[in-house]
Write a structure and sequence with these properties.
single chain; 1036 residues; mainly beta; Immunoglobulin-like; Ferric Hydroxamate Uptake Protein, Chain A, domain 1; Maltoporin, Chain A; five-stranded mixed sheet; 8 helices
Amino acid sequence: MKQRATGGRSLLAWNRNCRHALPLWRDSRSKAGLLLLAVLYAASGKAQSVAGYGAVTGIVRDSAGEGIPDSTVVVSNAGLGIEREVMTSDDGVFSTPALVPAEGYNLKITRKGFKDWELKSFEVYIGRTLNFDITILQENASGELETQNALPRVDATKYSVSQSITPRDVETLPTATRRMDPLVLTSPATTEDSSSGIIAFRGEPFTTAVFTNGAYTTNTYFLQKPGLAPHLTQDAIGQMQVLSAGGSSELGWSAGGMVNTATRAGTNDLHGQVFDYYNNRSLDAGDRFAPGFRPTGFQHQAGGSAGGAILPDHLFWFGNIEYIYGKSESLNRITNPLIGVPSGTAVWPANCGAPATPAQCTAAINYVNSQMNVIVPGSMHSWAGLARFDYRLNQDNSFTVEAAALQRHAPNGAETEEVANNGGLLGSNANFGEETRYGRANWNRSLLDGVAFNDLRVSLFHDRISNYTNPANLPSTGALAIDIAGTPVGGNPNFPMAQSEQRWQYADNMSLTLNSHLVKLGFEYNRRTDWLNQVFNRFGTYNYPSLTAFAQDFSGNANARKDYTSFSQGFGLPVIAFDSPEMAIFVQDTWRPIRRFSMDIGVRWEKTFMPKPLYTNASYFQTGSIPSTNKAVAPRVGLSYLLTRSTVIRGSYGFFFQPFPGQLLEALYNGNAISQLAISLNPNQTGSPFFPRVIAGPTSVPSGSTNVTYPLSAKFRNPYTRQYTASIERSLGAKTSLTVSFIGSRGYDLWTVADQNLNVPTVTKGYVVDNASGTAVMTYYTPIWNVKTNTGFAHAFIVNNQGASWYHALTAQLTHQFSRGLTFQGSYTWSHAIDNVSGAPVPWLGFLPSNAFTGDYRTDQGNSAFDQRHRGTVTWTWTPRFAKGNSVLDRYFVNGWTLSGIGTFASSMYETPILVVSGQQFTGTTMVYTNSLNGSGGWARVPFLPVSSLPTGPQYTVDGRLARALPVTERIRATLMLEAFNALNTQYNTSVGTIAYTATSGVLKPVAGLGVGNAANGYPFGTNARRAQVVLRIEF
């Protein structure tokens, strides 16, 4: 936009006159007054950050080094129709925030009596501030103006450990999902659970926040969820910034990592593309754990995008759409050594014997065998798209409206393994669906001659997930859930379920230039609603310790034997909805007291208003409310010192708070055992059912089987991390940079649970531990819980904040641009992550971890579930020009090739050894629960072996793309591509055997297969075996 509105001129003159009439700006009282003025300007909305944008700031000096006031600064981008004019402050400082990340920006400085200064064609990056130090000469001075030295070769305004994903990265790097996840994983301090697709930062169990053009687009019902930003296809993404540690006060609602994303925008030039990525399995490799299984299937991932100008320099548009259609096959196996043969293709008959009769064993074996080595078909239909409109009324006012949507349906797609190792593809599977909606409206306004800038935003994010059981996959026992030694062979207690979270966000952010200070402040309000249609475990669950025990109950059970470990079931209202509004306030000051030193000081306060449960359990009054803390105050500071133009040292320290997941709030909302009721029964309890019967209804629930859950009164709060970083960045020439960083993170007040219905144990017993030959090698002594506090209930879980985590890392980031069109970027992380919250989740409480000794979390401290000591990634793009000519041969055969890829080289992750307990263990002592050695009913890990001590193995993979561009006309180009993921087919384990012992009559016997690999899964296609596809893309 090149013309200023007439009305803006009169306001500009008024502001300029006021500025000269009020020299009070120079004292602290007037600064406070201007801050108050900014709050009044911001009163029309609420604020968070200008996430999703970049910024250009700096100082204009004379030849003596003094700041020059009232200089005119123009930042423009002809392609985007942007032209922003601001005036420098009394100290010569200027700021132009909220710039659309893109190439092609120009910066021009003019001042009466001085020569003009201009820098052309630079790039603005998302989440980054380009800080210029510009010296201009008087008109009569001799010499040339310097432009290249105005910007340091290193980033002197960055305080976090982060990485930028450029448009070239998005365009050229191969990604199997065509979503942002593989690109995020090229950043330091990241890890991924390859089976589930969950990404963790710093090895800590927290939510990864995704911001789309500043809007918070994260489904926080789940603590962690696979698939970041499902509403954005790769072609809809313009740039990304991945913050691994640290961050300004503008960003919040996460104690984990943050992904700052900008969508693509239209320009004055019409541009677009259509494409189809096609896979037909012919070039794929088979999963190494089922070498004879060659699944059939295919996938088309087709779509297009385009953008341009409706009114040149004023109104721009961009649109993107993508359709996925595919079919697949998966193989259901059971590798549990207490059930099947090592290959998982059939039951091992020796696992069933006396006291079960041969007929009972035959019936049980046939039942399980019917689910093993079974091919399960799957398919997927998915639509996703985005539309964006940008209107630049004048240089002081711009408006953006955009919307995105995803609609996905995947029959038999709840479980994604191509070769299941634990029987999850049949009864435990379901038809998966997801619907995501996103919308945003922005008004950006420059005020007070560019001294102030206001960003007003309203956004909507809605994500709905559903899983409905496919009746064709259920065994003869129907939807009844059955678990044998940790392996599901019946229905899934989680299904059917449908969950949605909707968030309306109202935000307003104000930026101010006050002499040498750049101040930002704002207020944000989120109207968050969680909705759930689920009664967990409505059909009941039987847990058996062995195939023999199951066989005794499954058939020929004339005497109504009860050989199971436990029975559980759920009842109540299926549909639950509750609001938990959120509010945040932040203020931040970026100050450059001396030429080489800058600092960023801020504070952020977050508040969640808790829903009130519908009912209160008369025996546990704490179930009637959920405390709402006011202590989420997050101070943050960042420091940067420019040693030379080529070297900068940085440091940061700050608090980051984890938002309350809806799954946790739902557990507390329904924890009263009235709105929803979860029961747990031992086989020796009066009224316990015998297989396959279930409890008829809530009025028939036996006494002493009811579970309740409630929070820790007024001390209940959300966890937070204290993150601290130190970095040094060095430019090793014009095309190379190296950054080495230290990251520390300490997690406080992580959510934990403790069973308050267990008396302090007064009995200690010793387990004899045998070796593989049956010889006793040691005795393990443990306290035994054998008495409840309140016999009218089963578990009484209190949710508290006794968990902790620790993380330390050294990272290195290297970027180099070689000659002949080769660009290289590498990232390496050495780290160690520890926590005490890695226990198996309590089934009906979502992610909340159980612990081996109730209330004693120190004994569960060990390597985090996401601990990965070494992880390195490299990305490269090579576009060589073999011939310098422009002949037909050169254009169509010799030149136009591009080779790009992502290499990942990582050390092992770990799993925890567990044991299977068969019934009561000691004569004369009745354990309260028989699923763990000590009778507490908690985490059934081996208590004398370390947590997370079973390595799964290293990962070495290379994803590659070979592309050939063919010019069709002057404006149209076709590109043929071959992509291969794990191109060298270096498959790696994602799971190993974890059953270390069985416990029977006080004796622990080792189980074969401990630590042996049994799965090579990969998200989202179910395997990390090689997968290849061909691509046709036409660009115009």
